[in-house]
Amino acid sequence: MFNPRLLLNGMLLAALLTFGCCGPAGVEKVSEERPISREHPRLLGSKERLQKLAKERPEAWARTVQTARELQPGNESVMDNHMKMVSMALVCAIEDDREIGRQAVERAMKYVNAPIRVGHATFGHDLARCAIVYDLCWPCWTEEERLKFHDYMNRTVDANVNSEAHVFHNGWYGYKHWGIGLACYATWYENERAPEFLAETERDYRERAAPALELSGAGGGFAEGYYINYWCYEWLFFCEVARLVEGKDYYAAAPGFYKKRAVAGMFEAYPWISERNSRRPIPMGDSGGQKLRRERDKALSARRILVNFYRDDPAHQAVHAFNETTPVSSTPGNAYKDFLWRDTTVPKGELKNFKLSHLSPAAGYVFARSSWDDDATHFFFKCGDRFTAHQHLDNGHFLISKYNELAGDGGQYYYFGGKHDINYLLRTIAHNSILVYDPEETWVNIRAYKEPIGNDGGQMHDWPHHNGAVVDADQWHRERQLYDIADITAFEDRGSYLYVAGDCTRSYSSKKLEYFTRQIVYIRPGTFLIFDRVKSTDPDFKKTWLLQAAKPPTGKAPNLIVTNDSGGRLFIQTVLPEKPRVKLNSGDELYSYGGNSYPAEDIRGPAPECRIEVSPSAPSLVDYFLHVLTASQAATESVPQASARVGDSEVTVTLANLKLSFTTATVGGRIEIDGQSNPFADRIVEE
Questions:
Q1: Which residue in 132, 131, 65, 129 sits closest to 95, CA to CA?
Q2: Does residue 175 belong to any structural domain of this protein?
Q3: If you ran DSSP here, which 8-state letter would residue 176 be given?
Q4: What's the pTM?
Q5: Do 186 and 300 reside in the same domain of the chain?
Q6: pLDDT by residue (tens digit) across 133-174?
Q7: Domain-ending residue, one of 372, 396, 414
Q8: Phi, psi of 455, deg, nearest 5
C-alpha cells in the first residue's frame, strides 16, 4: 500500500519514478502526458455526454431527478446521503442547476469539515461521493472549499496508508481505492498530490490486486462469497471512470475474473423475483441478504457494467437478457444506477438456450439450474480453498431451492466475531456438510474471539490473525499448506444430468479424518444423489451428515419431507447408512450442541428452522452416506424410491430408470440412464 516513507520527496519522487518528471512543474507535465480533460465534469464523461444520456434514458433520468429534488427523511431504505449527493450532482451537471449543485456541495463539506475516518471504515466511500460532487458541481465550489477538499483528500489518504491492506479482505479496491481513484481524477489539475496517489493505486492494483483476482477469482466467483456484492460495484465504477477519463482498461489485468464475473453473478442470484422486483443473492459465507438490501442493486449494476464492456460476447448478451427481467433498481434512490448503467442498446441474447451450470474453480463454486424460468430448481455446491475473512468452515456445503430455499444456510449474520457467529454461523454445523466428532479437539483464535469456542465436530482452520484473510497472492503461495484446503476434482454437465466431485479432506484436522469426498449427481429437473466417503482415524469418532431444512420435516426417517412457505417441497431419502440414526434439531435445539446454545441475536429474514443430523448406528472407521434429495412443487405427493447395494468395490444405486455406481476405493463411478451408460468425469470438463 502507499507508504510516504518510501517517497522521500513526496510527490516529486513519485512523479520522477512513474512519469519521468520532477520539481513543482512536474504536476503540469504529468497532466499533459495523460489524456485527461481539463474540463469539468469528466468522471462520468463530458456534460454533452451526460445530457445525451438523459435524452436516451428519459425514464431513468426522471427518477434520478426526483431523487435529487425530493428528500424523504427517515426512510433509509429509500434514500441515503450517497444516493442523494450523486443524484444532485448529476442534475447540477446536466441541467446546469447551480442551486441544487450548491446543496450538494454543502453536503460534501460536512465530510470535508468532519474528522476523517481511519481504518476499517468507509472512508473510500466518503471520498468517492465528495469527488463526484467536486467534479460534476465544479462551478458551485468556492476556491476556499476546493482547497479544503484537497486537504481533506490528502489527509484521508495519508492516514489510511495501512488501512484495508489485505487485498482479499472486503475487496480492498471497493472499500478504499475506488474513492481514492475518483478523487484523483476529479482533482487532477488542481491537487498536486493526485498523480502520486493515482500512481500508487495503479501500482498496487497491478502488483497485488490483479494477481489476487486471477488466483482466487477464476471463473468470476470470489471466495469472500456474498461480500463480493459489497465491493465489486464500487471498483467497477472506478474502472468505468478510468475508461471514460483516459481510456484505461483495468479489466485486461485479470481476464479470468472479469470476463466471467457477470455470468457468475447471474448464477449467484436465486431464480425467483423477490421484494421490489429484485433477485435475492444466495448466501455464501457471511451474508446479510436474507432481506432486501442495497447489495441487490449493486449486483445488478455490476453485471450491467460488465455487460456493457463485453457487449459483443454472446454470454454477456444472455446476462443482459437476464438483467432486463429486473430493469429497475429495487431502491428508488438508486435510480442513478439505472441511468448510468442500464444500456438497452446491448443486443439481447437467448437466455432460455443459455447454459444451465457454471463453475468458478478458484473459489470452488458450482452453480446449476433446471431452466431459466423463475420457478427453476437452483443448486449451489462449494468446495474450495481459503482466501478471505468472510469465508465459513463449510467445504462440501450445498444449497437447493425451489420457489425458495429448501436446503439452506444455517444461522444469520449480524456482525463479525459474535457468539452466534463464532460458534454457529460460520461453523460446519450450520451447513450441509459432514461432522466428525473428536471429543479432544479444540478451536482457538477464530476471528479473535476471546471466550471458549464450542466443539461442533466440524472443519478447522489455523487462523494466522484475527480475520483469517490472506494478505495477497504472494503470501497465499508462500503458505499454501495453510490455505490450499479443498478442491473440485471433477465437473461435467451433460444436459440431462450434472456431475461434480469434491475433496474436502484438508478442511478438517488430520488428527481425526483421513478422507472426506463428496460426489453429487444432479438429474434435472430436481433430483440429487449425494454420495459421501468418510474415513476417520478412530472408529469411535461419530460421523454426522447435515442438512439445514427450511422447515421441520414431516414423514418418518429414513424418508422425510421438507417444505417452504413458497410452494416448494424437498423429499429426503437416506439410503446409506443402513439403519441410520436421525435427529431433528428445531426450536430451542436448533442453535445448540454439546450442551451449549448459541442462538441468533435476531431473525431478520428467512433462515432454516431445523437441522437434520444423520449418523450411522454403529462405530466404524469408514462410512458411506448416500442421500437422494428431490425438489418439486408442493403438490407432488411422492417420488421414486431409491435402493442401494454395497459391494466390495462399489456402491450401486437404483432409482426409477437410473442406475448409478460409485467406487469406494477412490472417487469415481458411472451412470446409466435408459440403458445409456457413461463413466463419471475424472477431471473438470470445460464448459
A1: 65
A2: yes
A3: I
A4: 0.93
A5: no
A6: 999 999 999 999 999 999 999 999 999 998 888 888 766 667
A7: 372
A8: -100, 100
